[in-house]
Design goal:
mainly alpha; globular; 59% helix
Length: 190
């Protein structure tokens, strides 16, 4: 399983801290085992239920958000140096796990459509992802990124790492959302 996870999410290997890398892998393994999703079905699972049809898979979205946050952090480091400190390993782990709770929030319906689970209607993925990360022993800094990456985190002071993942996530979401909203620039009054 670990080899397949590393093949699917090669960004995991960018985490230099071996303990954090192992806990990030453990969270993925646990989420897959408990949810019934597989790496194959995650390539077919839409990353959001708010865009239908959704042209981006869950795996593509997780990787895009993580890489966008990494590249933003590299730009910060290049331009700001140590004046804007951040922990790259925490950023990468948080990016890779920001939507992990969707594995319990979503399920495949009988018709092959991805739908929200009954528990997912009560507890959105930032909550279930945080719980999973805590159970797998991930540090509070990574839990913070998961908990604050979506709208639920707007009332909290985000760390720099959490801010980068939050903005990368919404850059992805809003770009895809706009693709599905065809608006013809014409109107008629009746």
């Amino acid at each position: 399983m670990r080899d397949r996870l590393l093949e699917t999410l090669p960004e995991i290997e960018l985490i230099e801290d071996a303990s954090l890398r192992d806990k990030t892998l453990l969270a993925w393994e646990t989420a897959l085992r408990e949810s019934g999703w597989t790496l194959e079905t995650l390539h077919r699972m839409p990353f959001t239920l708010l865009v239908n049809p959704c042209p981006v898979s869950f795996i593509e979205h997780v990787r895009a958000v993580t890489l966008t946050a990494i590249r933003a952090s590299e730009t910060f480091s290049e331009i700001y140096g140590d004046r804007v400190p951040l922990n790259r390993d925490t950023l990468i782990s948080g990016g890779l796990l920001h939507d992990i709770g969707k594995l319990s929030e979503y399920e495949m319906g009988d018709d092959g459509t991805t739908i929200q689970t009954s528990s997912g209607k009560l507890l959105r993925h930032p909550f279930t992802g945080l719980e999973l990360a805590a159970r797998c022993g991930l540090p509070a800094e990574v839990q913070h990124i998961i908990a604050t990456h979506a709208g639920e985190g707007d009332k909290v002071k985000r760390t720099t790492e959490a801010t980068l993942v939050n903005h990368a996530d919404f850059m992805s979401f809003h770009s895809i959302l706009r693709m599905s909203q065809h608006r013809e620039l014409a109107a008629r009054m009746e």
